[in-house]
């Protein structure tokens, strides 16, 4: 696959793919004319890299994780790192869930106010 095809299918920029290559996260063969050629599985790999970045992992951590994901073998150290990263991501999810729940409360209050009702502390509305 050409670089533009991988970028389009993975939903990233061509620049991001070049960066992943520079970081050793993605490899491409070169055609005789110098164009990058990626295997079809590169799209899934790029999506996974994006997911790891979105979870807050840096390039070095991603670089250490990718071989383990491909080969299924984890050292004890890597297993501990992954558990720590998972715990960090779970803490972020918990914080985001709490923020979403608070937003839901504010939205309900706003909707009740717009409807001319008073919303009591227990979440029940009554006519004003």
Question: Could you explain how this protein is built, in words?
Answer:
This protein has 128 residues and is mainly alpha-helical. The protein folds into two domains: 1-59 and 66-72, Multidrug-efflux Transporter Regulator, Chain: A, Domain 2 (Orthogonal Bundle); 74-128. It has helices spanning 3-10, 14-22, 42-54, 59-71, 76-114; strands at 29-30, 36-37, 117-119, 125-127. Strands 1-2 form a two-stranded antiparallel sheet. A two-stranded antiparallel sheet has the order 3-4. Helix 1 (3-10) crosses helix 3. The longest helix is centred in the C-terminal third of the chain and has 39 residues, at 76-114. It is elongated, with a radius of gyration of 23 Å.
Quick recap of the structure?
The protein has 128 residues and is mainly α. The protein has five helices and four strands; from the N terminus they run H-H-E-E-H-H-H-E-E.
Write the layout of secondary structure elements.
Elements: H1 3-10, H2 14-22, E1 29-30, E2 36-37, H3 42-54, H4 59-71, H5 76-114, E3 117-119, E4 125-127
Antiparallel strand pairs: 1-2, 3-4
Helix pairs in contact: 1-3
Q: Cα distance, first to last residue?
A: 64 Å
CATH fold-level topology of the largest domain:
Multidrug-efflux Transporter Regulator, Chain: A, Domain 2
Percent of residues in helices comes to 55-70%
Cα-based radius of gyration, to the nearest Å: 23 Å
Global shape = elongated
Oligomer: single chain
Report the mean per-residue pLDDT as an integer. 86
Structural class: mainly alpha
Q: For the record, what CATH class of the largest domain applies?
A: Mainly Alpha
Beta-strand content estimate: 5-15%
Which residue ranges are poorly predicted, with pLDDT under 50 across at least 5 consecutive positions? none
For the record, the CATH architecture of the largest domain stands as: Orthogonal Bundle
Number of strands: 4
Total separate domains: 2
- Tell me the major beta sheet: 2 strands, antiparallel
Helix segment count?
5
**What is the H-and-E element order?**
HHEEHHHEE
Which strand order do you get reading across the main beta sheet?
Answer: 1-2
